[in-house]
Write a structure and sequence with these properties.
Length: 321
């Protein structure tokens, strides 16, 4: 398991993002006001709004990992999906606001030329936020966290607005007021791009909240650990659903009918341990035990070619219907 206490852990990278957003937001707002750059001032305000996402992620990382209780018998992981939904909506709201701001800028006409300090701050902010995006996305992939991935894309919106501010400030300084509308055109393109990414995050969060199954490759990886377990004849009714960044799995496991209840449960326990050991993202595996005989033998996930109670199952072949 990856170390959850280091800087490159979910909480560590989120705390770093929180600190960076505070410093960048205050610096960009102060410099934008002193240098006369409305673009940098708006960029600084957006950096400060990122604090809401970071605080929500930190709260969720603590709350979602709480143990199950009487009111939440399936755990608290859905809170991670709810916060991912919140961040996606925040991202979409910012994109809509950016589009309206671009329209207002077109209506107002060219903006005044900002000072040189605004250009350097925008460049530094772009570099810092892009590095933070890549670091957060790396941790998100490492821990398989959709919540962190959503927050990573929220960091990228800030780097995109910094890029927009950098282009607008640079063209205004280089070409004068006649080039000031260039940042508006770039703003339209960036807003459309970020809206598409926000839509993807929104769809993923909604799918988690309505108990959608994970992707087919993940399901196949989970199934691989069932039939090779000694004593397993077949399985069926295999299901998995997302709960935040974790997975819940349940299946019907079929064993030879002459086995005792204790022997059957020992086989089921080994199947569960195999899945939990190789897939740390799985939170729980619920197994319903059945006898593999007569009508009870469902031809789905059968071990061997023609398994019968009298012949031991072969684990080098498997058939699924």
């Amino acid at each position: 398991m990856p170390d959850r206490t280091s800087l490159l852990s979910p909480k560590g990278i989120t705390r770093l993002g929180l600190l960076i957003n505070v410093l960048l937001g205050l610096t960009k707002c102060l410099t934008g006001w002193l240098a006369g750059s409305r673009a940098l001032l708006a960029d600084g305000i957006h950096s400060l709004t990122d604090l809401a996402g970071d605080i929500a992620v930190l709260f969720t990382l603590d709350y979602a990992e709480k143990p199950r209780d009487l009111r939440h018998p399936y755990g608290h992981q859905k809170f991670a999906s709810m916060v991912a939904l919140f961040i996606a909506l925040l991202l979409l709201a910012f994109c809509i606001g950016l589009l309206f701001e671009c329209l207002r800028q077109l209506h107002r006409g060219p903006a005044p030329v900002p000072g040189q300090a605004a250009l350097w701050v925008a460049a530094a902010a772009l570099l810092a936020k892009e590095l933070l995006y890549h670091a957060t996305a790396f941790v998100a992939r490492r821990f398989r966290s959709r919540l962190l991935l959503a927050n990573a894309w929220h960091h990228r919106t800030d780097s995109a607005t910094s890029l927009l501010a950098l282009i607008g400030i640079g063209l205004a300084i280089w070409g004068g007021p006649g080039w000031a509308l260039a940042d508006t055109l770039v703003g339209f393109l960036l807003a459309a791009y970020l809206a598409i990414e926000g839509g993807k995050l929104l769809r993923g969060a909604v799918n988690d909240l309505v108990d959608s199954a994970p992707d087919p490759d993940t399901l196949e990886d989970l199934r691989e650990h069932i039939l090779p377990t000694p004593g397993v004849v077949a399985y069926h009714a295999f299901r998995a659903r997302r709960a935040g960044d974790r997975l819940d799995v349940d299946l019907h496991l079929q064993v030879r009918p002459e086995l005792s209840v204790g022997e059957g449960h020992a086989i089921a326990r080994r199947v569960k341990e195999n899945i939990l050991h190789t897939h740390p993202e799985v939170m729980d595996v619920l197994i319903h035990l059945e006898p593999a005989t007569g009508d009870a033998l469902v031809p789905k996930g059968v071990s061997g070619s023609n398994p019968t109670p009298a012949s031991p199952p072969h684990h080098d072949k498997k058939r699924r219907v």
